[in-house]
Amino acid sequence: MTGSDIPSSFRLAYVPGVTPTKWVRVWRERLPDTSLDLVQATAAEAPGLLAGGGADAGLVRLPVDRSVLSAIPLYTETTVVVIPKDHVATAAEEVSLAELSDEIVLHPLDDLLDWETLPGRPAVERPATTADAIELVAAGVGVLLVPQSLARLHHRKDLTYRPVPEAPESRVALSWPEAETTPDLVEEFIGIVRGRTVNSTRGRAATPPRPAKDKAKAKDKARDKSKRAGAGGAGGARNKPAGGRKPPSGGRDGGRSGKRGKPRGR
Q1: CB 130 within 8 A of CB 144
Q2: Do 185 and 10 form a contact (C-beta atoms < 8 A)?
Q3: pLDDT tens, residue by residue, 180-230
């Protein structure tokens, strides 16, 4: 891809709980002339946003439709239970599902966990969002199981959380629209999230290679300079007599006049 072919911007979607800050920073260091625009979307909206061309790539939660989107899993999140700070479960480092059997476990409509059987007792109504469920936990209505990043995102001073190892987990992936050839800028971002160096064979070179015509000009210039230097050195060698002696001075017969004998008598 030539400089003129590189798009001027790259649109990256991301879902709540995912923090792309460190990758955005590396992007801006490596590709300062190509802006990275962040597009926030809910976990449910993100796949449709990518499929519809609303973003070039996205940090999403799996699963996604692999017939429409390509995806590279990045990491799996621990699931935690959000509880009031005075809850009895705060005494333990981890909480089992069995220990939640008597609790009202809130199950918001935007829940991200793939439950086969919901733990605990169901609430009278399902909260519309995770944020609404957090408010209900703070009010003492029940507890909530979410990926750890969402517990941090909705942090409150009166709430805390504990890991629940038995609960389903949420996986985060880098995804983009399915195509025969992965776009160059998507490849750039893949390299960044995978920790490739700037000089990696899959990434952009730190310094663009010099165009062929510039290389030819440089060679011609060096050749001319070499010729001039050679000519100057040869001339100097011709002007200097062998052995370091000074050239003779005087008339036609040079220094031989001092060696003449006396004129013959007549």
Answers
A1: yes
A2: yes
A3: 999 999 999 999 999 987 766 454 544 344 455 555 556 666 666 666 655
96/165 Cα distance (integer angstroms):
7
The CA distance from 17 to 255, in Å, is 102
- Can you give the pTM of this predicted structure? 0.72
20/230 Cα distance (integer angstroms): 60
Residue pair 14/54 in contact by the 8 Å Cβ criterion: no
Cβ proximity of 90 and 21 under 8 Å: no
pLDDT tens-digit series, residues 133-162: 999 999 999 999 999 999 999 999 999 999
Residue 41: partners with Cβ closer than 8 Å, 6 or more residues away: 13, 14, 15, 49, 55, 58
Quote the radius of gyration of the chain (alpha carbons, Å): 39
**Which residues, 6 or more positions from 78, have their beta carbon under 8 angstroms from its beta carbon?**
147, 148, 163, 169
Contacts of residue 144, Cβ cutoff 8 Å, sequence gap at least 6: 81, 82, 105, 106, 108, 130, 133, 134, 136, 137
